[in-house]
Structure formats: C-alpha cells, structure tokens
Amino acid sequence: DKKALLKALIRLSISTGLYPECLALQEVTSEPYPCSAGHFSEVFKGTFCGRSVAIKVVRIYQISDIEQVLKVFYRESILWSQLSHQNLLPFYGIYHLDHVDRRLCFISPWMENGNVREYLAKKPNVDCLLLISDILHGVRYLHGEDVVHSDLKGDNILVTPAGRACLADFGLSKLIDSKVLSWTSLYSTAQQGGTPRWQAPELMNPKSEHIAANKESDMYSFGGICYEGLTGKVPFHEHPRDSAVCLKVMAGQRPVKPTQNQVISSRWGMMENLWPIMERCWAHDPLKRPSASEILMQEPFLGLETTDSRPPNTWKGLTASQLRNAMRVVKTSG
C-alpha cells in the first residue's frame, strides 16, 4: 500500500543518502535578505515558475554533520511531498542554495496573510471558529497519515489567500545529533520537540527523555492555539520567561480562563463552547486528551462546514509533483 511504499522509499533514501530527482528544483530565485529567522532556519521570499515562494534555509553549523543532516532533510522532504490537504502548506520541492556548503532549502508557497495570530490581529471580525476548524482538519489529516507535527502554535499556522488556515513549520524544533527537522513521522526516531508555552508536560519532564512527541502532545498544543485565537495572546503571556512557564506546567498549572474583557469582543461567544475542549486538551494524562476527529464531531464544530462560504485553496487534492507540473503549465501558457 501507499504507506508501505513510502516507508520503503524513506529507508532507501536514508541508506543511500539520495533523494528522488523529481523533488529537486532548479528555477528558484531568492531575495538577498531573509524575511524572518529562527534558531535553526531563515526564511527568504523568492520566486518559482513566476510565483512567490517561501524559501526556508536550514542553518548548518558543523560541516562534519552534513551527511546526517542531508539524510534527515531528504527523509522529511519525501514524507512532506506525499502529503496533500487544503489545511496543510504544500511542498514544492527542495533546493540547494549553493554548491559550497550545500545549504538546504524547503520551497513552499508564500503566504502574504502571514500567520494566524497576525491575521486575526489585522482582521478581528474574521470568523475565528472557522480558522480553528481548519487547524483541526489539518491535524486530523496528519494524524490519519501517522504524522506528528510536534510544534503546533500560532506562528506555524499560516493563512492562505482564500482565508483558510494551513499547518506549516517555519521553525526547526526537533533535533537528532543537534540537527533535525520537526515534520516527524511516527515511525521515525523523533525526540521531544515543540515550544514551551504550547508543549505538553510529559515532553518537559527530564525523567522522561525517552518520550517522543506524539498525537496526544499535538492535541495539548492545540489547546494553546485556541487560547491564542480567543485572546490574541500566547499562553502564559503574563509570564515572560519560558523557564517559569515550564515549571508551572510541570506543576500542573494551565492557562487561566480569561475574563470577558481579556477576550476579543467578537469571540467571547465562543468561550463557553471552546474552554471545556481546551481543558480536555490540557489534561495531564495524555490518554484523556481528545483527538482532532472527536472534537470535530461535537459542538461548536459539528456541521460548521455547511455554513463555510470561503473558496477552496488552489492546491486542494494535488501532490507536490502535480503542483509543480500545474505551475509550469500555467507559466508556459502565460
């Protein structure tokens, strides 16, 4: 089946240090300076086949690790290239920025609307519930494919031109030998990943180093995303130091339910329905957290799609290779 073939392809890539030639892009141009940067990557705006793209460049500090980094990079590229959903950022391919140190790049569409927190700040009257539903659909799809995101937060959720949320990852949170990408399959050698304010307590516990990010820890992070959507602030915003947040979460504390004046006025009506879901997502016992599928089958998400008037994203149902071919056809005909 498809999953077995994908696993075989990934094993072949890891053993040989090679990747499918169809993933390599040769027509990418980049602006000279990055638009944003994290600890392990920089994001440039560029063009591919006449369209704006995001170029995520992986920072490599130790040349001796390059072969291991390449294996992980190719594995994740193969995995991402086989995923296709309208609430998942498409993957166009990989690109070597230069031939000196073989700097590695992920190429994906450029999202002018930015991330979901920025978008909601600019447009406070947008239906936040639809965006949260988008996120749930994206998470449900990933988990159905046995893929864990491991770093869900507002910064890693972009808004498409159609006004739909899609899961992305512009930070590299997973480290193996100090260099790993955070789109991680359940059958990979993932370790802990994520950002403290959204991270599940079991991933913070120093006595549980063997515990990997999983579907349940993704659902814990989803609760934090809901908090961002309702308040426009990150979880535990009243505590500026991440170390203090870690101690509180490990002690069993969770974000405090906001009062009406702390919630964006147009979203207060969602609070009573969403807060119990958020509390379940923040359960200390991972097995007590609901799945994305369970949440979508209850209020306020049940039947929400029937009232959704937004247009579909242009890539709906297309794989990475189909997207590249479609773009080249458009460019040729233009």
From TrEMBL:
<dbReference type="Pfam" id="PF00069">
    <property type="entry name" value="Pkinase"/>
</dbReference>
<dbReference type="GO" id="GO:0005524">
    <property type="term" value="F:ATP binding"/>
</dbReference>
<keyword id="KW-0418">Kinase</keyword>
<dbReference type="InterPro" id="IPR008271">
    <property type="entry name" value="Ser/Thr_kinase_AS"/>
</dbReference>
<dbReference type="GO" id="GO:0004674">
    <property type="term" value="F:protein serine/threonine kinase activity"/>
</dbReference>
<keyword id="KW-0808">Transferase</keyword>
<protein>
    <submittedName>
        <fullName>Kinase-like protein</fullName>
    </submittedName>
</protein>
<dbReference type="InterPro" id="IPR051681">
    <property type="entry name" value="Ser/Thr_Kinases-Pseudokinases"/>
</dbReference>
<dbReference type="InterPro" id="IPR000719">
    <property type="entry name" value="Prot_kinase_dom"/>
</dbReference>
<dbReference type="InterPro" id="IPR011009">
    <property type="entry name" value="Kinase-like_dom_sf"/>
</dbReference>
<feature type="domain" description="Protein kinase">
    <location>
        <begin position="29"/>
        <end position="302"/>
    </location>
</feature>
